């Protein structure tokens, strides 16, 4: 199995754990913005420390990082935060399921944006695998509740928020790949940790400034929940490092597609630990996603 596949699967696993921790924080202690800020405020220092430790053993000089690196890094960081805001806004809407379904076009958006910005090539078989994976995700999403003419849902605010979130997550993944590829040197792990340290630091500073202006007290609450929130930082650091390293080795669409295995992790936990019954529709969706991942692993 290729390294980028292993990294993508690990990233999906750590992301699933992080979402569970963030959900816990947002439900009992912090707002949605605070739970998101916790991810950056506790992972950024760890990422900076990891970058320093990585270079320290050999006393390696850090490579010079050009304006393109910082530009793509800032674009990816901003797009990720904006995409998260769009997703959170969906939760406040009545027809949230419509928008959430459109958000799941993230992988296809990443494929298109990657081709336009970086010239990434998607093989015909790879494109079919992406479509199969998307179909599996849509099956797992369940039927979309429709009142009135179905086509009006395509123009609803929820649909636009969902499409915006999907497109922004696509921009984020492709931008991170572009930034990491601009780090001189052939070591994918060095590229990943330097890009991660730079991006999370920019995100931490940006969100801190935002909260300082909009909800200053929330910063104190985030710092006060460090016993739980630090684990958000640790899982975020581990997951993001795996994503970034995978992006240096393979195009963002393939990495994101394999990362959809996160949904399978979720359903497995639901069945094994919470003893919840999985329906035939959900089994079919899992089979489609597993097939998509298998094709990408074997033939990409």
Q: Can you offer a commentary on this structure?
A:
By secondary structure, the protein is an all-alpha fold. It has one domain. The protein contains 13 helices and no strands. The protein has helices at 3-28, 32-55, 67-90, 96-103, 106-117, 124-141, 157-181, 188-214, 216-224, 226-249, 252-259, 261-272, 280-299. Helix 1 (3-28) packs across helix 11 (252-259), helix 1 (3-28) crosses helix 12 and helix 5 (106-117) packs across helix 7 (157-181). The longest helix is centred in the C-terminal third of the chain and has 27 residues, at 188-214. It is globular. The model has no long low-confidence stretch (mean pLDDT 78). Pfam families: EamA. The chain crosses the membrane at residues 42-62, 69-91, 111-142, 154-172, 192-213, 225-247, 253-274, 283-299. Residues 159-297 form the EamA domain. Keywords: Membrane, Transmembrane, Transmembrane helix. This is EamA-like transporter family protein.
């Amino acid at each position: 199995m290729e390294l980028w596949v292993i990294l993508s699967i690990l990233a999906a696993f750590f992301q699933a754990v992080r979402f569970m921790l963030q959900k816990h924080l947002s439900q009992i202690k912090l707002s949605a913005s605070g739970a998101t800020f916790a991810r950056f405020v506790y992972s950024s220092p760890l990422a900076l420390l990891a970058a320093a430790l990585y270079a320290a053993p050999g006393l390696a000089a850090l490579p010079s990082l050009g304006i393109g690196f910082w530009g793509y890094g800032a674009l990816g960081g901003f797009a990720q935060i904006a995409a998260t805001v769009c997703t959170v806004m969906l939760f406040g809407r009545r027809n949230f399921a419509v928008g959430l379904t459109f958000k799941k076009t993230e992988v296809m958006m990443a494929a298109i944006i990657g081709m336009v910005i970086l010239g990434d090539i998607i093989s015909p078989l790879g494109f079919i695998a992406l479509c199969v994976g998307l179909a599996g995700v849509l099956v797992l999403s369940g039927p979309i509740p429709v009142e009135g003419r179905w086509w009006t849902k395509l123009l609803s605010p929820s649909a636009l928020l969902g499409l915006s979130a999907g497109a922004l997550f696509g921009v984020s993944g492709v931008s991170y790949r572009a930034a990491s590829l601009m780090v001189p040197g052939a070591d994918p792990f060095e590229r990943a940790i330097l890009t991660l340290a730079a991006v999370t630091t920019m995100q931490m500073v940006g969100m801190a400034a935002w909260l300082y202006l909009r909800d200053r007290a929330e910063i104190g609450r985030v710092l006060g929940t460090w016993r739980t929130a630090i684990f958000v930082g640790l899982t975020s650091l581990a997951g993001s490092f795996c994503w970034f390293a995978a992006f240096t080795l393979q195009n963002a669409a393939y990495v994101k597609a394999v990362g959809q295995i996160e949904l399978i992790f979720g359903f497995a936990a639901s069945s094994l630990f919470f003893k919840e019954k999985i329906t035939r529709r959900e089994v079919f969706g899992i089979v489609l996603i597993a097939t998509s991942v298998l094709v990408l692993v074997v033939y990409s």
